[in-house]
Amino acid sequence: MLSYEAARAKVIEIICARHCAPPPPTETIEFAADPSRVLGRIVAEDVRADRNYPPFNRSTRDGFALRAADAAQAGAKLRLIGESRAGVPFTGIVEPGTCVQIMTGAPLPRGANSIVMNEYARIEGEFVVLDAAAREGAHFVLEGQETRVGESVIARGNRLGYAELAIAAQVGRSKLVVAKKPRVAILSTGDELVATGDAPTKYQIRNSNNVSLAAQVSLAGGDPVMLGTAPDNPAELRARIQQALEADIVVVTGGVSVGKYDLVEQVLREMGAEFYFDAVAIRPGKPAVFGFCQAKPVFGLPGNPVSTMVTFELFVVPAIELLCGHKPHPLALLKAKLAHPVNEKPPLAHFLPARVSWPEGEAVVEAIHWEGSGDIGSVVKGNCFLVVHETRQVCAAGEMADILPRRGLF
Ligand code: AMP
Ligand code: MG
After folding, report:
1. Would you give the DSSP letter of residue 41?
2. Residue pLDDT, tens place only, 315-346
3. Could you check whether the bond before residue 109 is cis, i.e. omega within 30 degrees of 0?
4. How does pLDDT run across 45-88, given as a tens digit for each residue?
């Protein structure tokens, strides 16, 4: 049985080998009026600077622009000859013994090579008296010092966050080429399931995986295709999986354990699937399977809702990211101090519903009591999963532990 790290690496290896040679399909999106249209998407071009940034020598303070040599010591007195403000430069030259009042964002006048902040200067009639010495090069950014014209400001394959959109706007882009969202089919299986809107009988339950998975797909940058519930019946399962294979990735939940009605793996095999793993050394989520069927990546996730959530995050997210042209990266775990001792049974790695908080500024994590992998409420009470590695099952309170933040909450 693979460790979760090895299983995740296997997903990345196989998808890269089978998918990454042709770049992902792209679309051009106009976003100036509605940046949410591209927020979180993966950019599929190198976005370049249209000119030098800053486009002129730009003041970073409110103060006085002058020649540093004129104010080598505190106490210098310089003639005030004009002002430079953002958008409206001073057109003259700062000659020896003179200075120009300057605002943040304004062009540095010719002749000046230093700015003294307002806090160290006072105007006395036609003069400015400085309480501090000037330093050459202080408080302005030279033209092109941030970015040169033609330089890449967002590299292909990066996710578009608010800063990326700001720089795209800065360099004059109102459209961006982004990877098309991979369509991720979500099919739940189980004779006991009813749709959220339907009234369950006593022994039926509502299909919640359908919903959590669609949300997780969206958060990971995919386009969810919700296919509802298939019964535990080989012929129907086959027909529904065939329909799911029209998408770019297939996620089936339930029916992957060793129970009498766990038919998913067998049906997929009959449909020509090749599997790369069919169990992972984790709890929850041990029966997770990954394979390719009819040239599409297929994941069979255990049906218990918390298992579904964890295995999706570990194994399906990298597949979605790779299909968007995002570069592979390790699972983003953070560190927090354990609020209590931990003692889990080997040989599985555990992902326990947990809450991280910062009571005194330092991250502290506390596991939430849970009744096992069917207990969605335990995840809701928390905001992360505490990772108890198979190699380190006993930890004392106060030791540092890994946590997997819940996507979308931080
Ligand atoms: P399975 O993986 O099919 O053996 O299901 C394991 C447990 O998860 C059972 O208690 C199922 O009733 C439950 N379960 C399976 N699928 C779903 C679903 N889509 N939504 C909520 N619970 C589910
Ligand atoms: Mg089932």
Report:
1. P
2. 999 999 999 999 899 999 999 999 999 999 88
3. no
4. 999 999 999 999 999 999 999 999 999 999 999 999 999 999 99
What is the percent of the chain with per-residue pLDDT over 90, rounded to a whole number?
97
SS3 180: coil
The tokens 């964002």 sit on which residue?
Answer: 105
* Angle at the Cα of 189 from the Cα atoms of 188 and 195, rounded to 5 degrees: 60
Please tell me the total number of residues recorded for the chain in this structure: 410
How far does residue 373's CA lie from ligand 2's centre (Å)?
A: 14
Mutate to test the pocket of ligand 1, among 186, 187, 193, 265 (most ligand atoms within 8 A of CB): 193
Q: How far apart are CA 38 and CA 154, in angstroms?
A: 14
Distances (CA, A) of 338 to 165, 275, 387: 37, 37, 11
pLDDT category at 21 given cuts 50, 70, 90 is low
Cα 288 to Cα 105: distance, rounded to the nearest angstrom: 56
Backbone φ, ψ for residue 210 (5° rounding) = -50, -45
Q: What is the pLDDT of residues 271-300, one digit of tens each?
A: 999 999 999 999 999 999 999 999 999 999
Query: Exposed, middle or buried: residue 216 (CB in 10 Å: 0-12, 13-18, 19+)?
Result: buried
- Mean pLDDT of the region 111-139: 98
Q: Which atom of ligand 1 is nearest to the CA of 232?
A: 3
CB-based burial, 102-120: b 16+ in 10 Å, e otherwise: bbeebbbbebbbbbbeeeb
Contact between 309 and 408 under an 8 Å Cβ cutoff? The reply is: no
pTM summary value: 0.93
Write phi, then psi, for 213 (nearest 5 degrees). -70, -40
Q: What is the pLDDT of residue 20?
A: 61
**Whose Cα sits closest to atom 10 in ligand 1?**
304
Could you give the angle at the alpha carbon of 7 between the alpha carbons of 6 and 10, nearest 5°?
Answer: 85
Find how far residue 378's CA is from the centre of its chain: 24
- CA–CA distance, 279 with 263 (Å, rounded to integer): 15
* Cα(316) to centroid(ligand 1), Å: 18
Quick one: which atom of ligand 1 is closest to the CA of 192? Answer: 12
